[in-house]
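Summary of Year 1 activities. Much of the first year was spent building the evaluation harness for sequence design. The harness presents a backbone, in tokenized form, and records the residue chosen at every position. We chose the following record to illustrate the format because it has been used consistently in internal testing since the harness was completed.
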């Protein structure tokens, strides 16, 4: 049952985002996290930390979660790869936090 609820949450999150990576414009509503990757993302969509992430090249975005930002960053990094920049509601993690994210 928890897996079914998790899938339902992902489906609901997906409905908020447009179907294509072109939806990654700055005008997206609900974008709370942004990440820049060390290398381009292999896929356009990922589920990490219970969030649906949409990626285009080395740029990824997701909606807000109830987890702490550093935890979100770490879970994203484990799924997608090394992060060179991570912002939370427009504010970037500092160098120490980013290093902890990637460790």
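For this record, the design step produced the sequence shown next.
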């Amino acid at each position: 049952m928890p897996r079914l609820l998790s899938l339902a949450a992902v489906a609901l999150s997906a409905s908020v985002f447009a179907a294509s990576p072109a939806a990654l414009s700055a005008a997206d509503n609900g974008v709370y996290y942004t990440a820049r990757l060390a290398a381009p993302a292999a896929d356009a969509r990922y589920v990490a930390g219970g969030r649906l992430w949409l990626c285009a090249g080395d740029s990824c975005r997701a909606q807000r979660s109830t987890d702490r930002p550093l935890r979100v960053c770490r879970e994203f990094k484990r799924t997608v790869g090394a992060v060179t920049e991570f912002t939370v509601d427009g504010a970037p993690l500092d160098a120490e936090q980013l290093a902890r994210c990637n460790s």
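Residues 12 and 35 are 22 Å apart (CA to CA). Quantitative recovery figures across the full test set are reported in Table 2.
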